[in-house]
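User: Hi! Is it possible to get a structure for several chains at once, not just one? Here's what I have:
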Amino acid sequence: MIKKHYDLVVIGGGSAGMAGAIEAHKLGIKNILIIDRNDYLGGILNQCVHNGFGLTEFKEELTGPEFMTRLSDEVKALNIEYVLNTTVTSILPDKTIFASNREGYHIIKAKAILVTTGCYERNAGAIMLPGERPSGVITAGTAQLYLNVYGYLVGKRVFILGSGDIGLIMARRLTLEGAKVLGVAEICPYSNGLNRNIVQCLKDYNIPLYLSHTVSDVKGSDGRLLGITISQVDEHNNIIPGTAKGFECDTLLLSVGLVPNSPLLRDAGVELSRNKGAIINERYETNICGIFTAGNVLHVHDLVDLVTKESRLVAHYINEYLKGNSIIDQIYRPVVAGDGLGYVLPHKVGTHPLDEVTFKFRVRRPVKDVNVIFYEDNQTIKSVFKPVLIPSEMTEITLSLDELKQFKQTINVKLEQKQ
Amino acid sequence: MDNLSYDIIVIGAGVIGSNIARVLSEYQTRVLVIEKDNDVCARASMANSAIVHSGYDPVPGTLKARFNVAGNKLFPDLCKRLDVEYKQIGSLTIAMSDEDMVTLESLKERANTNGVPVEIINHDRLLELEPNVNPKAKGALLAPTAGIVDPFTFCSHNMENALDNGVQLHLNEFVKNIEDHQDYFILKTNFATYTCRVVINAAGHGAYSLGSIFERFDYKITPKKGEYFVLDHYAPGLVNHTIFPLPSEKGKGILVSPTYSGNYLIGPSSELSLANDHSTDPATLAMIKAGALELVPSIPFTELIRVFAGVRAAPTDHDFHIAPLKKHPNFIHLCGIESPGFVSSPAIAEYVVNELVKPILNFAKNNNYNPTVRPRIHPETMKDEARKKLIASNPDYGEIICQCEKISKGEIIDAMSRSDHPHTIKAIKKRCRAGFGKCQGGFCQPLVARLISEYYHIPLTQVVYSKLGSNIVRYRTKGDNDD
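Assistant: Yes, the chains can be modeled jointly so their relative placement is included. Here is the combined structure:
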């Protein structure tokens, strides 16, 4: 039975939501509700049957379902309230939550909300995939659900566009299930997946990786996919004529990026950044006081262990907020990401941060031997040397309260090649 | 011949065939509609601008002008009784130069001749109505009777109404040959052989070759492909009207318009193509983007969710062909119904049935005719208390299947229970909007596939995306293949 009032409502019971709720409970917040649309707690981990999860969170290597079960067992052991098969349809800036399930339509008031709704897969439309629109062109995660949860293969001759981790993992899974994976095309001159996945999922199975290549045509009218053409691209991602290679296949998996699943936040009036995650301060609070966000709905993480770590940190700030230790009228110093940086979190830092602040960022393309410089005007406040930075790995740099104090108007971050 | 299979066979269940079927169902006559695709509204009727054009643009005296203006007037009431979303938002044709402003005067004259209310507005008034239009615009032609419509349910609810009133529909059936035996036709398809008194050829791209069985035409059809962008319904107010550039030789040009669902539609291009070529390509899309940004410089292409292409059956003489064949008066031939065919469709249907078919068959009114379709229920737009009551009476309406568009299981079951039985992922998408949002079915497609599988008692491997053969999943991983 869903109550009418909670101190904290967590929307999305995946790894971020559960870790946030568990930590909030441990910090003393007792009146918590987790809402999830699926019929289990754990979100996308349920279909990630491969291993490689939990090395930092649990100090051992787990599969996705094992990882999520550890968390859901703890949620249950702590008697944290949760409701399944329930979709939050909207939230209001006053932290009213509207949720729908088979039992009814529920209007819930929360003192604080943690939005942990994860991400969705970028799809054919968003990347303007050329050619026709047959069945068999499918995002890698959806194919993974059909395979690992429903028990169906989408096809047996497969090409993969994009070297994101889900695509790489699926290359191996499909091969093990008897499908022929013909290759992986990546538009960038480098892979966008974790190195271990390139080795363990492609190289070990002799699946070719075509760097600086993209799909230039899709054939099959609106029936089932008949084949694709890939072509090499130049440094501006334009197709180089005469480089086309054809593949007969019945399936094209798209592993071309993940996008924060943030429409709920957007429709509540939360300001979003260019990557579609919320704009947050150093406490992971959005522009609406008391609405917090963490995990892949904020920015897409490399590993679930980083998601749970972030979410636990946010639980700490939610606790401070509920205790009244929130300085609403503090002045924010925007964080400005320089050339070569995809994004830097948080987007702004108040004049009175509660703790040191760990900045999280990604580079746009691989770089070597750079100093990451935090500066204002001509004054460098912190410089950290990094021998290698790659887009597929998020980097963290922490600034102390003393260092943060030195910024007046803006916190600028840039990369500088080491001489 | 008294024991004919049908009185009338309509070939094609696009927007023209569906409207004709509906108007025919008002009479006591036996009608079969055959459609070669796996759903109604599967070709040009599905992939177009979905604009209820005002009718100022077609050359006065043409069939296009006549049926556009008449059709526009029929839309409001028809959409109300068929439960189709329709909004009369008006259109603005933008003048970018003083020369263009002079052209607007001639467009206004044309509108007057066609009997369409329009008004020329100046720069200031334009920017007041549309703050995001290019500030360099000099003015615009405002046509307040233009509108936007849900093109998918406009077709499917026309057909549903026809089916509810006794018309029959066969999907995946196509004509192989037709013989005229003076007072009846023998029509052979891939399934069967039928006899009928009247054939109505509304076969879209296929209409020309079907008509050519009997007659040589002095025009040709040159298929023209139009590519489009669809943006998410991220925020209202980018544009409030349908925004057109000045029309040119190539047509009405690249428009920017809100859609019935609050999305934004940008396009089309106009390129010669094959009739079945629905491919998109980066060069054409870049051209559309540039054209659209000229009209509305702040279009957020980051909100892009889909690109698509539709192919119009463009006649070389630039007008509709709607008439009985000269030597085969019971064969009603509709050909070259390009834009503004969608808006014209209800007026064309009334003309075809009342002026062309009725004199042949002299049929009586169907006294049991029900003019409405069962209204749909969409919990997301209901008031809280009504929504609670609805879910209490039918919990399916509480179970959300499509997160992006907030579509419940109840809505999908309701659609499948209607007389036109949508049974593909795309047919459900067209009727319920499940899979229409930013994830493009990434989350809900498996759930919809499972609902179809359960509702029609077919294995998941037999659930198709659209056409026959467009299966989603092909093999079981364990155990027997049920493919």
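The longest helix of chain B spans residues 341-361. The mean pLDDT of chain B is 96.

User: Great, thank you!
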